[in-house]
Amino acid sequence: xxxxxxxxxxxxxxxxxxxxxxxxxxxxxxxxxxxxxxxxxxxxxxxxxxxxxxxxxxxxxxxxxxxxxxxxxxxxxxxxxxxxxxxxxxxxxxxxxxxxxxxxxxxxxxxxxxxxxxxxxxxxxxxxxxxxxxxxxxxxxxxxxxxxxxxxxxxxxxxxxxxxxxxxxxxxxxxxxxxxxxxxxxxxxxxxxxxxxxxxxxxxxxxxxxxxxxxxxxxxxxxxxxxxxxxxxxxxxxxxxxxxxxxxxxxxxxxxxxxxxxxxxxxxxxxxxxxxxxxxxxxxxxxxxxxxxxxxxxxxxxxxxxxxxxxxxxxxxxxxxxxxxxxxxxxxxxxxxxxxxxxxxxxxxxxxxxxxxxxxxxxxxxxxxxxxxxxxxxxxxxxxxxxxxxxxxxxxxxxxxxxxxxxxxxxxxxxxxxxxxxxxxxxxxxxxxxxxxxxxxxxxxxxxxxxxxxxxxxxxxxxxxxxxxxxxxxxxxxxxxxxxxxx
Amino acid sequence: xxxxxxxxxxxxxxxxxxxxxxxxxxxxxxxxxxxxxxxxxxxxxxxxxxxxxxxxxxxxxxxxxxxxxxxxxxxxxxxxxxxxxxxxxxxxxxxxxxxxxxxxxxxxxxxxxxxxxxxxxxxxxxxxxxxxxxxxxxx
Lengths: 487, 139
Hints:
The complex is a heterodimer of chains A (about 475) and B (about 140).
Chain A: E1 5-17, E2 54-55, H1 56-68, E3 72-73, E4 76-77, E5 80-83, E6 93-96, E7 103-111, E8 117-129, E9 133-137, E10 140-144, E11 151-157, H2 164-181, E12 193-205, E13 208-211, E14 215-217, H3 223-244, E15 254-259, E16 264-270, E17 280-281, E18 288-289, H4 292-299, H5 306-317, H6 321-327, H7 331-342, H8 347-365, H9 376-387, H10 393-403, H11 410-416, H12 425-438, H13 440-447, H14 453-467, H15 474-485
Chain B: H1 4-10, H2 13-23, H3 26-36, H4 44-53, H5 60-77, E1 101-102, H6 112-116, E2 122-123, E3 126-130
Antiparallel strand pairs in B: 2-3
């Protein structure tokens, strides 16, 4: 059955924590890892008689994401109650948006492995509140409501993804976007992003298309688990179809969990009937009506998006897709790089310094590469020195490291560290003459055009470098060698 | 006023319905029933289903009694259907108010004793409930 013809169909629901200071509907501060129930109040704890009030920043962030995802922004939006039966939201409902989400009908562009760009349609993105945490121990469950009421943006795509890799690419691209916009830390370890793929297969058999029953995988919180669980589910559905021939019309939608230990999905529940969430408008909250001025103000905060920037770095600066991807992983690094290049530095050299030397130091220090204390102008000057062969690439890296703890201009540092290259032909010529005199065998090899000519040339150059302690400009040395040996 | 402990653990959807009626929010009350029950007659099976969804355990006597009471309420509300609403815009809120925002500035939260002092069961700083089986929680 290895040659069975099928197409993978995946849609994704993504929950993103917004990086506001306070909760969606009350002034409790957002926290992580603090004492349980230390950031709660009558509103988020579900006391009768308390009234929720919208966090303006959260609403603006949600609109900004909608704009970045090319969505239509609803001029009129409202809040609905969604019935919920677990103690981590003690109101017994979740405040969400049902029929009038903040934004809808957009798309996101994702980079594929072959360098192509694919458009995935966005069905909607709406604001809601997160639940608290249920911690199960022994015969009881303990409830921590610190997270209850955290502003949560739920983004729903159309089923436009056709492989596990595309699902992963979308997840990563969305993380980059919300980070660029500054609306979410999107830290996986802290559960800031959660994914729920909906998966089925369209199998072609005997000229007919069979659609397998849709399954949803709940609560994935890493890129790896998203990709692997989708891959696993594709295989499982394929096997199931071969065994049972079951199609969408015969089976209910099922919900699966992902067991990271076993690297396998497991059945959570089969829906006997569609969930009845009994949505209805929340009488405690008034609608939001956006006028053009409000929307224009929010649009003013839009920045160049990561994929556009990545493409610009490739097209305008001649970087590889890979390098451009590394530099645009976060906005500070991307903008820092961009401004150094705009200050006259060569893009490829700047990129190499930042990705090979800078990122390592930055990671060790736990900061962005832009925060290492090297101003744009100073870095540009350093790169220009390497461009004009005043220093070697190796020396540039050494000076870069020094510059993170020394505020002097790179030229001064280079002088102090004795790293300026000798390009003075007169001075170098004397040294080359000396090396030629000391190594007659290699010289003979070159002059007679022997087999080891290349090796001998490299050997002589190496001798010059040794005598100058690596400070000779190799280009100039080669020129002089050629000149002296051909006279 | 309701006691705090009720709000954390034992409140269920049906209690919410009655609570909101007590609060006088008739629009809320109507809309809930409108969504839940499409027909006027509420039979015992529907009461059982609603009770199950609301995690309520009701006696046979209660099921029969509630079926009658809920049907009577809905019959009364059914009068609204006599109105012609063909050209009426759906109402999102009963007050002509919009855009009530709060600045994103932290306020003092409750202290731990205020927050969980009234909880029927607790473990240190946590509320506790009987263990949740089949946990599909998560907003």
